[in-house]
Amino acid sequence: MIWNLGSINIDNFYEVPHLPSAGETLAAQSYGFGLGGKGANMSVAAARAGARVSHIGAIGHNGQWTRERLMEYGVDTPHIAKIDVPTGHANIVIDAQGENNIVLFQGANVELTEAIIGAALTEASPGDFLLMQNETNGQAYAASTAQALGLRVAYAAAPFDADAITDLFGKIDLLVLNEVEASQLEEATGKSAGALGIADVVITLGAQGCKWISSTTETCFDAYPAEALDTTGAGDTFTGFLVAALDRGLDMEAAIDLALKAGSLMVTRRGTADVIPDLKEIQDHFGA
Q1: 269 a known binding residue?
Q2: Model-level pTM greater than 0.70?
Q3: Considering only CA atoms, which of 185, 254, 161 is closest in space to residue 262?
Q4: Angle of CA points 148, 161, 215, to nearest 5°
Q5: Which of 85, 155, 191, 239 gives the lowest tally of CB atoms within 10 Å of its CB?
Q6: Which residues make up the binding site for ATP (predicted)?
Q7: CATH class of 2-19+31-286
C-alpha cells in the first residue's frame, strides 16, 4: 500500500499564445479548472496504476469537491483533514507548444500537524511505501516515523529545495528528480546522484527518457515517442506509476518502463489529475 503525504490543489488553466514575459498583459484563449497538486496527481496516478493509495493531506472549506474527486478516482481519503485555511491552488498558463508556467498558493498544504500525519501512518504496515513531494510541511517527521515503522520512503524532489532533500538523507529509499533538479542537488551537495547514499535514484530526462542509478548500476531508458500538447503533470504521473508498480512487486526496470509509457500518454492530454491514464488505456495504446 502507498501512503502519500501530498498536496491537494485546485488547478486553474489558461491557454495562451505564448508564455508571458515580465510586465506583459496577455489575454487567455481559454480557461478551465480541475483537481491538481503534485500530491493529488501522484495519488491518482498510483491508484490508476493498480495500487491501493491513502492520501494524507489538508483542504479548506472550499475544497470538499477535491476530496470527493479523489475518492472517485480510487484514492482512500480518511486522512485528508478539513481546516480553516483556503485550499491550495495553482494558476497554470500553457502555450501552444505545451510548455507552462505555474504560480502556486500553498494554503492548507503547509498547515498539516504531526497528529494528522501520525494518525495515518499508525495504520501502515512494514513494506508499505510512504510517498512525499515538497509541497507540504511535515516531511521530516513523516519520513522518520515511516522509517521506524519499516516503510519504504519515496521522495519526488519538486518543487526543488536542496535543504528539504538533505534533511531527509538517510531516510529516503527512492529519489525521483528531473535533470535540472539533479544538477542543482549536485551543486548544493558536491555529490553526484550515485554518491548520495540513496539506494535508488531515478532522473527523468523529458523526451530523452530517464536514468536509473542504483548502488551497483546506472541504466538509461529511452522515452516513448509522443506529440506533447501539455507537459503539466507528466512527471507526477511518471512517479505515481513508478511507485505503484514497485508496490505491486514489479522490478525496477519493469516499473520504469510502465512509468515512461504513462508519462508519454499523459503529455498528449490537456489537464492534470483528471486526465491521468489508467492501466487499461496504457495497455490498449501500447499493445501490452
Answers
A1: yes
A2: yes
A3: 254
A4: 55
A5: 191
A6: 178, 204-209, 235-236
A7: alpha beta
